[in-house]
Structures are given as structure tokens and as C-alpha cells.
Q: What sequence folds into this?
């Protein structure tokens, strides 16, 4: 007898057939309990259309697993089985977790530095060639996370949406479009193969009067939607939950609503994927309305245009700071999307050297493949190669660079727009340090002669957009 | 009989002789009452050494004035006289006053837009040739105000200081150095001839342990010093009082101390010159410690490195906002003094178009005449000519450009570091507007074809550091 196998943090799937009449999305409940030694983990299954039901599971330990299904529908109840969880294949490090307060690492311990980008609707064009182009571009890019929406905006009329129906007039909020979901899953797999995390945006506010109405569903409809998403997607190790984009721009929901929905996600997700919510303008201080200390937020997914805020954000919630929106490189008619590559890089360096993470976005008008931020395609900006350079420097440094700086063994210092003819470095007198001068725009690293020790006044060329890398020998 | 004449806002001076023994600075009180019709204005006189006493007065109305001196010292008491105040000579517009809440104008109504610079110790070198060089450079510059200190810093040992003595060990806090004051008065006159206001900094915190001790004088010593300064300088129409630079860095004084000293200045100064105090780091919000609504502050003399704060500062105190310190063009080893000319111009435009005023400073290392900010000399930076360009544009516009913008007749809009391919202008549909595109760095003004009316989406070249001037035809 051949035993089924699935690699650690891979997806094991149980496929069953059952009723196809009535509305199985609403009427048929299905789950399974997976057992590993004495540990039991229960996950929901989901209806995939045409009488097919699936239960997906992501095992996190190697060895023998057993399962048993549970349903009030007799055909789906009490099915038992087993599988063996094998070691992960190369490149599979498991889901990303928060580590040491402000950092991230994959579950196998490999450090993960989020260098994200944003392509809100790259999967909604109904154009596989365009998706392949986007995937190629992502593969060439320095980016290892992409923020992407599940729901269309008010004016979008994609071939398919999460629900059955193709326009606000005929959409059926009680039935999901299984083809739509299968397609998103294909995209999640595509990203996973490239080592890219999918920061899935589950709600957004860009659906005002006259649109789909998805930003003003009832509590029951919201939970119906979230339950289905979690059942289908949570066994993908590269999924992050971003409950909403710019949540405070949605006038149909309160902070209490968002809190309850986030608590629901936390309760239903058996794997505790990273989970957060992204703000609009409620960004300038931690208040009761924007309190990232809440236990259902694993990290801070911030919109803030001043990277210096990183320090205050770290202190306020003691969680990783990911500034997913800091203005995009581009030339559109809005301030959020028309900074230069140089300005974006200034913000990147300002944030990273303060212990935060910054994400990329790009929106140029009149480019052949449209605005990256909206639909993916090709990148036209000057920042991606500089972001790659920065990412490489970060990866060369200690995993916890802020702790190393505190301890005195390493520091990456960004001098910003300022021109220092000299700079006082408070190095330890007991150690020897090598100092490198970094040009963040021309991507050069120049080693200063000799070594330094103790408080030193280092002569510099007085150029803006430079950084210093100070490493104890 | 020939009647003495003095022009309006000029300085009338009574010279008398009296006791020269003992310590006349402390022991001899002298004042005079000046009468114009039924109006009576009393001002203090001062001892000028070698038995000479002077009383200075700045008449503000044309016509006949009478005076009578008052002193417990018989030789100085009860001297009467008269003079005629004549019309002001060309270029004499009187002292600068606050106008319409957030603006300034000379007393004759001529608008005054402060375009200041900073040369803290340009009068302390004991080198008249250097002072002439500084005056020449100021005359060529776009600047019409200079911030300057009366007191030396801890390590300075100028030929003379405000008091008798030349070093901390022999300085006599009970006697003023009249030659020092005569020299400062020469410099005030020099500035007046160039149409430049002197923003006199009376105290500063740069005099810590081992220095002169001027930042920790007793209340009586402070008042003795202020009374003498007001008696000597207040008849100069181009004087502003800046009670202290970076007052919050002086640990020897409290906010209450500063308030009392400012109240004293307000009470003693017969002409109510502009009066303020300049902050160090207490700049990010109006608090009880930094409350510019206090009646003895005529305007806000701010240190803040973010010009966008102008809006909040205007709203918080409803007084003119003068950001006298926004970081200087230069390349020294401190963030306050090493921004590029471009960055400084970005801050200028950001502040001015929000209804504030920005001041200039420059500090480059290794320049022939040293750092401008400290001692004057030559200017080496790239910002002055761009400041001249901005000043010219401001002078071409309406005196109250923020009110004109509100009213819809004029707007100067700065697009900052952003690159707009188009920009939505909410112009009135009832008027025709001409639009000009301004390159703030290359100092060009380009008129867009035709006229515009109503909400318009104006096509732009998507370049950073541009501004729009929109004028109703």
C-alpha cells in the first residue's frame, strides 16, 4: 500500500464528493481534524462547485499524520485517512513569523526581510500573458512580497469576481465563483515558486456608492466571505492576511467591526499567518482608533509618508514596522504617487536604518503596460535596482541590525539629505572598526583606509544621499 | 533761533554732562518725557562714559515735540527743549509692525516680507574691514533682516564685550563697555542704510560652565542689562528684540523667567518693537512651555526643520510665523548646518506658500571668510539667488497672498518634491485665470497658453521642484 506524502509546509488536500443541489456554500458544513501524536488541529473544508468538496491542510511537523472528516452531511462525514509529512524541498522555509520583536523569519529560522511591492489588481485582468509578464518582472525584481487585492474597485468589471455574477446588478453574495478562487490559487502558487509572499488584502474602501457594495456587507456576509477564504487559502504557506487597505476610508465599518473580523480570522486560521490591517490617514499617532498593540495584529502595516516615524512606531507597539505605503515612484496627479526614485530611496534608507521596512510601488502615466501599482506589468522606475542594492547590504549585515548597533558591533547609518564634511562616530575604544562609505544612488561602497577605534571624527565628502557601514573587525 | 529737526522715525538725541565718579551706570537714573500735543512718552536715558549722558527718542508723528528731563541728579534734571519732526526721508518707512494677523508692514503701510539671514557674531571680530565685507555682501543679497547676537559664546574672546573687561575673570557686570555699544550702534546704522532689520538676540545658551556666565545672571543683572540695551537701541527703527536664541537649551532659566523678561522689555520699550523668543527643540507643538499666544510675543520666531509645520503654527497662535532656523545650507558635521541649496529652497517654497516666512543661514567649512552663520563675510551657497527669485515673485503678488488664495484671485502653489503629470486646480468658474509654471531651481517662469476657468486638470511636465502661479485676469 502506498502512503500519501506531502512536504512540510506543503498543502495536503482531501477531495470528496457530496451534494450539489441547493446552495452547498451555505448549507453544507465540513471540517477535518488532523492528528499528530496527541496534537489535534481542526480546519474547515469548502465547496468547490460541481459536487466537489475539499479540505486543505498545511502540516508543520514531519512524520505520520491522521485525519477524520466531520460533517452533518453523511457522505462527507467520518472519512479517515493518513499521510506522511516529509522534509521541505529546497527553497521551502515555511510561513513567515515575527521574530525578536521587530523582525521576521521563516518558520525554519531563516531570516526574512520584507522588501515588498504592490500590484493591487494584477490577477484581475483575465489576461494570463499579462500575469506571466508580471511574474517575470517580479522574478527579476528585488521584491519578496506583493500586496494584492481580492475584491475589485467600484468601476472595475473583471471577467470574474469572488462571487458568482459579473456586475453589481447580478452578483450573488451567497455563492462564490470557484473559478475565480482557482485562478487566485494559481497565482499564489506562482508567487510561492518565486519565493514571494502574498500579502492578501481582503477588503478595501474603493467601492463607494454605485459600486459592488462589498465594503458595506453585513456582519454575516463578511464572516461567510472570510470563512471561505481561510478554508481555501490558509494552507498556502506564503499567505499574509491584510484585512483591509486604508480601513479608515471605509465609512461603512467601525474600528470595532474591524477588530471583530480580525479576531475571527485569528480564530479560524489554524496556522496563525501574519495578520494586520493597513491604515489610510490615521497614521500619525497611536490612538485608540489605531492601536497596533492589539493581539490580533502580528505586525504594523503602515501608511505613513515620513520614514522617520519608524522609531516612534516601533516604540509605540513593539512590533515590526512595515511601511507598505510611503508614496510611490511615479508621475501621476496625486501626491501619493509621484515622488522620484531618489526621494523613494531616501525614505527606504531612512526607514531601514531605523529598524523598519519599507515597501515599493510605482505608477507612471502612459506606459505600455500601465501602472504597476494597479495591474503589474513592467517596472519603469529607477528605484528597483537601488532597492536590490539596499536589500543586498541588509542581507550582508546581522539579522538584528538594530541590536548589533546597540551592542556596538555593527551600524548602518544613513546621512540623508545632509552633507557631512565630517561625522562623529561613537565607536567603542576596545574594538577596531572598518568604515565604508555608501552612495545609495550610484550604489557604490567605498572602504575608508585603515581601521578606527573610540570616538572618531570621520572625514567625509559632504555629499547628500550617503550612508556609513561601520563593522567591528 | 534755529529749531532742531529730526525726521519721522529718525533718532533725536539729548546729550548732557553729569557725574563721572562712582558707578553712574548703577547710581544715576535719568529719563525724559517727550510731548506731542497731549501725548506724553517717557524714555530712559543712559550713561555713555566720561561724564556724558544721552537720551534717545524716535518720534512717530510729524510736527512740534517738547521734552523735559527727569533725574534725582540735579545737573540732569528738568532740562527742557523742543524739536520739529519732519517727513521721513526716502527709504525710511518706520519700524516693522505686525499686520493683518500673519503679515508684516512698515509703520507707513509699506508691506514688509521678512527674508532674513543669520550672522550671529559678525560685529564681534574687531575687524572693520570684515564688517564692511559683510555689509557689501548683505547689500548684494536678497536679505532684509539679520539675526545677530549681542553676547559672545563661551569660547569667544572678542576685543570688547557688553561689559567692561575682556575675559570671564575680569568682566565687571556692573559697568557697560560704551565703546562696544557705540560699535554695535554703528553696525545698526549701517544695516539701516541698507534697509536691513536687525533681529537682536539678547541672550543665548552657548555659554556653559567655564564661560562668561551671561546665561545665568541674576534677575537684577538681567534687568540692568536689558534696561541699558533698550535705552541705547530702542530709538533705532530697524531693531527687533529676540530675547533669546534656543531659550530651552539654557538650563539656568525657566519659562517663567523668560516671560518676566519679555514683559519687562515690553514695558520699557516705548516703541513696541517686534519682540519674540527663539526655540531650540521645543518646537513640535504649542504647549504651555512654548505658547506663542502670549501677548508679549508679537510674532513666532521658530526653529523647526519641517516647513509644513507652518500651517499648524499659524493656526495655533494666529501670529506671523517666521521660521528663522530650518537648517542651513552647508556641509558641517551637524544636521542643522549641512543641507543642500535645493533642499533649503524646497523648505522656503513649502513655508512661503503656506503663509509663513523662512530665514537663511549658511555654513561651509574651509571657506576663505569662514562660516557666514557665525561671522558673516562672503556667501558661497546656491540658495541666495534662488531666494532673490522667490522674493521677487512674492513682491509681485498680493500683500496677503493667503487671503487672495482663499478669495480665489491668486494662488502660488508649490508642488514640492512631487512630479505631477497633471494637477487639478479648483478655480472659480466665473473668472478667467492665467497659469504660470515656475521652476524654483532654474528660476524660470513659463506661461501656459490661453486662460483657464472652473475646475481644470492642468497638464504638467511631471518635474519635481516646480510651482504654479495662478492669477485671475
A:
Amino acid at each position: 500500500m502506498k502512503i500519501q506524502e506531502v512536504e512540510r509546509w506543503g498543502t495536503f488536500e482531501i477531495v470528496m464528493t457530496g451534494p450539489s443541489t441547493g446552495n452547498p456554500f451555505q448549507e453544507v458544513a465540513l471540517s477535518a481534524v488532523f492528528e499528530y501524536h496527541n496534537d489535534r488541529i481542526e480546519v474547515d473544508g469548502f465547496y468547490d462547485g460541481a459536487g466537489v468538496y475539499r479540505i486543505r491542510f498545511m502540516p508543520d511537523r514531519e512524520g505520520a499524520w491522521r485525519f477524520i472528516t466531520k460533517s452533518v452531511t453523511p457522505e462527507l462525514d467520518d472519512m479517515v485517512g493518513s499521510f506522511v509529512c516529509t522534509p521541505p524541498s529546497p527553497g521551502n522555509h515555511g510561513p513567515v513569523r515575527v521574530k525578536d520583536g521587530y523582525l521576521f523569519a521563516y518558520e525554519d529560522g531563516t531570516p526574512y526581510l520584507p522588501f515588498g511591492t504592490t500590484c493591487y489588481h494584477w490577477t484581475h485582468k483575465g489576461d494570463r500573458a499579462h500575469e506571466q509578464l508580471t511574474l517575470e518582472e517580479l522574478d527579476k525584481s528585488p521584491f519578496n512580497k506583493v500586496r494584492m487585492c481580492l475584491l475589485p474597485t467600484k468601476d472595475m468589471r473583471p471577467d470574474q469576481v469572488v462571487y458568482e455574477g459579473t456586475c453589481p446588478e447580478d452578483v450573488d453574495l451567497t455563492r462564490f465563483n470557484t473559478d475565480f478562487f482557482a485562478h487566485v490559487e494559481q497565482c499564489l502558487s506562482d508567487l510561492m515558486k518565486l519565493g514571494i509572499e502574498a500579502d492578501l488584502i481582503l477588503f478595501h474602501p474603493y467601492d463607494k456608492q454605485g459600486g459592488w457594495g462589498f465594503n458595506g456587507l453585513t456582519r454575516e456576509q463578511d464572516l461567510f466571505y472570510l470563512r471561505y477564504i481561510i478554508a481555501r487559502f490558509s494552507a498556502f504557506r506564503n499567505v499574509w492576511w491584510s484585512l483591509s487597505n486604508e480601513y479608515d476610508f471605509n465609512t461603512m465599518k467601525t474600528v470595532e467591526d474591524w477588530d471583530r473580523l480580525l479576531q475571527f480570522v485569528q480564530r479560524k486560521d489554524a496556522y496563525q499567518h501574519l495578520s494586520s490591517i493597513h491604515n489610510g490617514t490615521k497614521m500619525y499617532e497611536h490612538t485608540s482608533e489605531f492601536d497596533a498593540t492589539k493581539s490580533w495584529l502580528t505586525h504594523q502595516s503602515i501608511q505613513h509618508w515620513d520614514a522617520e516615524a519608524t522609531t516612534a512606531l516601533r516604540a509605540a507597539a513593539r512590533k515590526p514596522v512595515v511601511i507598505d505605503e510611503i508614496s510611490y515612484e511615479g508621475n501621476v496627479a496625486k501626491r501619493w504617487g509621484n515622488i522620484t526614485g531618489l526621494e523613494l530611496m531616501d525614505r527606504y534608507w531612512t526607514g531601514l536604518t531605523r529598524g523598519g521596512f519599507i515597501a515599493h510601488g510605482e505608477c507612471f502615466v502612459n506606459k505600455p503596460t500601465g501602472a504597476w501599482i494597479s495591474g503589474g506589468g513592467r517596472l519603469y522606475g529607477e528605484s528597483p535596482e537601488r532597492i536590490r542594492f539596499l536589500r543586498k547590504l541588509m542581507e550582508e549585515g546581522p539579522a538584528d541590525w538594530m541590536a548589533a548597533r546597540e551592542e556596538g558591533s555593527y551600524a548602518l547609518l544613513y546621512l540623508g539629505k545632509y552633507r557631512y564634511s565630517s561625522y562623529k562616530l561613537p565607536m567603542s575604544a576596545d574594538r577596531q572598526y572598518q568604515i565604508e562609505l555608501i552612495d545609495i544612488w550610484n550604489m557604490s561602497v567605498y572602504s575608508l583606509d585603515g581601521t578606527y577605534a573610540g570616538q572618531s571624527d570621520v572625514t567625509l565628502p559632504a555629499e547628500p544621499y550617503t550612508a556609513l557601514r561601520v563593522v567591528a573587525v
Summary: The two ends of chain A are 58 Å apart (CA to CA). The interface with chain B takes residues 330-333, 335, 338-340, 343, 365-366, 416-424, 457, 462, 464 of chain A (CB under 8 Å). The mean pLDDT of chain A is 95.
